Fold:
Amino acid sequence: MDSIEELRSFLRDAYGILISREKDYLLTSRLAPVLRQLKLSSLRELWTLIRQDPKGVAERAFIDAVTTNETYWFRDTTVFNNLQDKILPEITERRSQNALVRIWSAACSTGQEPYSIALCLKKMELAGKSIQSRILGSDISSDALQRAREGLYTSFEMDRGLPDSDRQKFFLPEGNMWRIEPAVRSKVTYEQINLMSGRADIGQFDIIFCRNVLVYFDEDTRTQVINMLAQHVLPGGFLIFGNAERPHAAFREAFESYAPNIYKKSG
Structure:
């Protein structure tokens, strides 16, 4: 087995991410900067370092390089309209006034999704409908999470789905970039989580977003991840997928379809 095949197998087995042989050229091109960064001369040396130091610098650099961090603000506006107009009011109506609403944005990339959720909550607060909430954003890429924590975005990133009114109200200019205001940024915490292994200690949530990541997994891994996420949804809570993602039949026995791509847990 050559080194690129070993790296592909490791990526599949450890993280559930599939890269076909036909995309070896893509893998090679993305890893070229990693070799330069670590002063390595070959993928064989990279693979050796990853095996010698699990979860170390080489593995983190490898994952940061090969993961896809495509994201933008309010991706699929129908989902966010349902969140603000239906889901959050429904949850708060059946809970005590000061109950904490917990939301998890899994595979959050550089933070646009969890911050979009936070902006929905902020707008509700400004409209007199304040909700006690805590948002968790998670990803496997340490680089993406660092950028999310900073909440600092280029003009190009800001132009991808963010209304001008939100930019003016909730962001502060820093040179040629924009930083989300502290009151919104403080609503979100970030943790590195591999969806293949999950994190039993993070508890349960009223709403989980897991969108546009399951398409990178094989069928068995998708089922494993969906089952893990379902265990973290409170009864009556919601699990939200991407447009191209469909849950398996067993999942639909415990969840009912609520709106496009949105499922509500029984109980």
Remarks:
- The longest strand covers residues 233-240.
- The mean pLDDT is 89.
- The radius of gyration is 19 Å.
